[in-house]
Fold these 2 entries.
Entry 1:
Amino acid sequence: MKNRIEEEIKAKSSSLKLIKLTKKFPSLDGSGEVTAVDGIDLDIKSGELTTLLGPSGCGKTTTLRMVAGFESITSGQLLLGGESIESVPPNKRDMAMMFQSYALFPHMTVFNNIRYGLKIQKLPEEEIKRRTNEIIELMQIRGMENRLPSKISGGQQQRVALARAVVIEPKVLLFDEPLSNLDAKLREYMRDELRSLQQRLGITSLYVTHDQAEAMAISDKVVLMNEGRIMQVGSPWELYNEPASMFVADFIGKSNFLECGICSVSGGGADVELLGRKFHLPRPGKGFSGMAPRFAAVARPESIKVLDSGKGDFDGVVRKAIFFGNYVEYAIQVGDRLLRVESYFPQETKFYKVEDKVGVSFNLESIRVLEDNRPVKG
Amino acid sequence: MNNNTADFFWKLRMLRKEPLLVVFIVILLALLTLFVIYPLFMIVRYSITSDGGALSLQTLFNVLKNRSYRTTFSNSIQLGVISAVLATIIGYIFAFTITRTEVPFKGFMKTMATIPIISPPFVLSLSIIFLFGRKGLITNGLLGITDFNVYGMHSLILVQVLSFFPVAYLTLSGILQAIDASVEDAALNLGASRWKIFWTVTFPLSLPGIFSALLLVFIQSLQDFSNPAVIGGGFPTLGVEAYRAITGMYDLRTGSILSIMLLIPSLIAFLLQKYWVSGKGFVTVTGKPSQNRTKIDEKHITIPLFTLCILFSAVIVLFYGTVIMGAFVKVWGIDYSLTLDHFRYVVSIGLRPLKNAILLAVIATPLTGLTGMAIAFLTVRKNFIGKKYMSLASLLTFALPGTVVGISFILAFNDRPFMLTGTALILVCVFIFRNLPVGIEGATSALMQIDPSIEEASVNMGASSFQTFFQVTLPLIKGAFFSGLVYSFVRAMTAVSAIIFLVSARWNVVTTRIFSLFEVSQYSDAAAYIVIMIVVILAAIYLLNFLVNRIAPDTNVKARKGFK
């Protein structure tokens, strides 16, 4: 049976729009400015979980803090459910945030932490009680209401922080790397729990992380950022399978970049030259326009096959072989190139050893072609 | 418009959404201006004008030409330097022994190194008279000397070192504790001897603390009024001479100029301490609990240090014990039989000054505590026009000698529009603004250790700045708040130098009453008063501790609804 609070939260959830959002900081030496966020456009639909992903310093946290109202906006607009909120102070924005450190009030019990926001709103005692209790049920933290945050485990603190955030029925829920303080196992568990809860409540969420696996696992939409700009927006599937640039292909998953000569383009496919041999690529990808000075082919480690010597398109030598259980990671030298290969089901195929001579073939279906924006080698 | 200012204006706009906060900031700034900056301006102006109000440096030249005033100036400086050096050495020995060695009775030593800070004024001076005076227990009673002159620089140095070494101890033990233990352990591991480690690692790393301690004690010594006033004898100092010029010769202008001569070195020392020494620290506080350091337990090091500390502590016990004894004996030096006569006398001449002092301190203490916390919170976490001014004006009061404050308050508040002299209000104001700095410093460092996201979480939940302050910040800095309260209560109860100019017949307080008992040599009656004060202060500390722990902040939301 659903709680009443779930319905209420769903009803309050709202869309969020960022228009040309920009943040400039004075540079450290005081001489000029550093653009931390550079004109970001983003449309987050109601009930959707959007992740801002990127390396540290890419501007994702600054963006989140501008949305929350903790940082000033240098220029651009913020629309919450269609209403402009740039000049609304952070305590009137109707958003709730989950902090990296959880920021639970150390001097209040779990119960008082959770109902804090409701007390601030001066809701009737009855409603505060009902909502607090319902959220405690929902989060499965019954039994620890009277403990202090320091007396409960990391996973429980996480739940309390989430409870405290959603109990106020915010229009948007913000997450600032909320899982980064947990150990690996718990992180995966909490991640799944967070996602299922978010979907159950249908609450609009903006989530910041630098962990691409986390982003893939929980997002409806991933926004990959670098140096204050959006590199690509899309579903996890799109980002992995249709990277728009080498940065995206490199950041999401692992990639081999191979110089790629274009011979001809025909009907969505492309005839290319890779490592001195000609191939027909049936799906060079959406990032491929055929209009760049240089091209690189992206071959994911799992789309390269390792075969016995002489049986592949190329001959190579194993330089590294690491057994991970579910797959073997190889570094295979072909000519003067080292290819990174992941060979799955090692129990059903062969486990080659270092210095073994092997054959190598590409899975041409999954090779994509992108503009090569690396500097030209000397 | 550059982005820095754009950001600043954005924060201002955000502030505008909380009009109550803006009003509060404006009131604070106005009060700081009225009670810190304006009186200071008045005393400087008064010093360089004639009675008619025209610019005139005549009195200034007269004072500077006067040989005895020049001696007075150098006396003050000399006393300050000697006291600072000796107090710092003793403070260092205490701090080193307590933080670095394995010796017994550390709790006792720590107590001895704190008592003089919370003690009523005049205790040590009174003791030295009881012990070494004409009818002194040691000079006369034990050694049979009758012509030993207890008054003068030698006594002052002893009394000031005893009074102010705790300042050095606290500064230095903070620094010594903050030095990463592994640095010294590394030196030991590399084969250095304890002696070598001390001179090559520990001592250089504690140098900023040593300079800090020197300057702080120097300031305290300069500002000291009560001790030079009663045992200075033929050794005039600036504070006392300013007081005599005003009360004895009714020469307010000369008094002002003498107090400014006192202000200048004090201010220089303060600025040096604040901006030069504090910036030089090698110690970075990581917030991580430091691992246990290996304590020195070699006997040839610990025994001499331990002996020194215990001897010095014994002197403090002796001095305080003497005063307590003095309050209970018939006639010191002649008849040592026990009596309660002095207490009866004190009660008979009226406990009104004591009641006044307690009342004023009780009014001033919470105001000082809250104002201090609020200023710390605003200056650490908020952005607004006048922020630098606010922190400077509030810390400046630390550098202002009480004598300067007293005289400048007379000048500023004797006339319309701010006619306050003779009222209780002016005394409360003196207490509040003189005792702000320590509360501010304590709260500031406590705030620095709190993750700002805890406060952001509160704001994010919809709380205003006031709600966040009272429900989240204040409870988290309760410890600093408590010590701020204790400190301001004690300082208010024991103040002499500033209020001696401001008390009136109606609003007389206990310290000035004790001072007048000194002037007529009723030492045992003064001792009785002091014993009562000690009891009151200890009771107040106990009570404050109890109260602060009783406040359960998160259950009190309803009571504070007025703040939205």
Entry 2:
Amino acid sequence: MSLCPGLMTGVIGLAMIVLALGSNMISSKKPAGSASGVPAADANGGGCVELDRHFFTWGRRKQLTEKNGKTSKVMTLREAVRKYVTDGCSVTFGGFIGRDCVAAVHEIIRQGIKDLTVIDDSKTDMMDLLVGAGCVKRWEGAYLGYGAIGLAPNIRRSVEKGVPLKIELEDWSNNGISMRFLAGAMNLPFMAIRSMLGTDIVKYNPRIKVIEDPYEGRPIALVPAARPDVAIIHVQRADAMGNAQVWGFNGNDENKARAAKHTIITCEEIVSTDEIRRQGNLTLIPFYCVDAVVQVPFGCHPQSCYGYYAYDVLFCSDYHEAAKNRDKFLKWLDRYVLSAEDHMDYCAKVGWDRLQKLMRLERHFNRIPG
Amino acid sequence: MQEKKYRASELMAVMTAKEFRDWEIAFVGIGIPLVAGMLAKRFHAPNLNIVYESGCIGPLKYRVDFNVGDSSAADGALCLTSEWRVFSDMQAGYYDVGVLGAAQVDKYGNLNTTVITGDQDYYTPKVRLPGSGGGNDIGSSIGRVVVMLRLERHRFVEKVDYLTTPGFLDGSPGAREKAGLVGSGPAAVVTNKAVFRFDPDTYEMYLHTIYPGVTVEEVKSLVGWDLKVADNLKVAPEPTPEELAALRAVDPTNLIMGGAEARKSLAGIDEYIELTIKNSGK
């Protein structure tokens, strides 16, 4: 480890290290803790783990030749979740209450994964489901509500009543979380931000450090890098290598994919690499950030997917009404998630006819150029 | 007094719309703030550009959004980019006005969207609210902030249970600047009964405009501190038939303005899709 900074002279140096060390040596490193110079606060369960792996970005990304030598990272959703999402791991989800990876969340619930730490900006349905199903131990984020429809019923039950479990909450602002992912993606320990100053967010969140700006002397907030174990991101289309193309807004997805140890891409369509090359500027996440590619049509329902299908506001209204009552929520969960074999089965339960209608509505406004 | 032809929430949306100026760049929250922004675009501010934290800049507003990341937020946008990018643009001073909702506001315009503690605390509150979302960022850095909430005694409090979004903090001179904040803070609080503004010297909220049929005493009784009243108190004009028609066309399914009740009067997805497309202008 101590050898490496001296060798960090550029791309050639990096390539040499990868070649010289090989994947085994890097993957055998133990968590470095404070030795890496990153604040010890990262070790408090906040999803910032195994810092040396992140410090040596090329080593984390890892076994690069092994991974990118694969011509295909395509697998099923069940395989991808089983392989990368484990009890107690930290995870972030792509999208921004739109293009959410709802299908992957259903699969996490079906596999009964527990004690997740979720690091994210803003979430509605997905977090309400995960918390109601008892999968989450801790949340570090900015917004857990239900959009224009109201408050999130399962979040309230968890925080106020401890049902089914009381989740730990760590409050940030959306830009605070954005800067955490930006720092994680840039392999920097923290980022500076002019938000959250003077408020109770700072008072109750000791990981936000307010310092005097060493250059201009004014107060500035620092937020630590977010480095979740897994990022799961739904996109419109990807190729088998993992080049992920996005239409519509990007949220923080480019940084989430880069900051995470492993990234699962779910997509509406898998296309050829030649097709990706035709419009390379649409590739938000390049292949080297990606571990798994899963085709999941309608994978965002009831959320929207730009160019594919619109938000199903009535389905969400009905869910919201049901979720206010614990028993009715459990019935809903059983009906749509637990008793569904997979996402195609979920789609059949929702109704293919209904999904086609949402597609028609979206395509009245937005079409993805073929 | 004869029956009103409009709901208080509709006048609230119309009064908020008047806070936008043409050619401004606005960060608006989902719900009635967005409806107000869309209304402004159809009247006095056709060149108003709306920005969403999901990364959408300047969409054509054909239909309402229920979430900041609905595909509708990107309809015909001028620029589709990243969340951190639009927040950075805001921090760099590019955006003029933000409209925020809140559960509580205090006399210095500080907002709470995190917890209602009741007789409990932050960790086990009486009501857990969504949290900051982008609210704190907007309140920290945008040019000026318009706050939108219902005028109720438990919302207009001397001190918020949790200070999520900074107004003028403790109201001391230069408090925002000393804290390191770059935006200029709250400019107005628009409610269902009145509009409030802030004294430039004391930073304290005062009653600026009341709505037809509302009395000063009624407003004062709903505010948790000794409210000051403008010397030249104004009375808001009633919304015009054109404004009301536009408002109802912006939200044709009434799911934003009417909430959960409106859901019951909507037959199903076919009616929802038909109304949305028919009123979109596209």
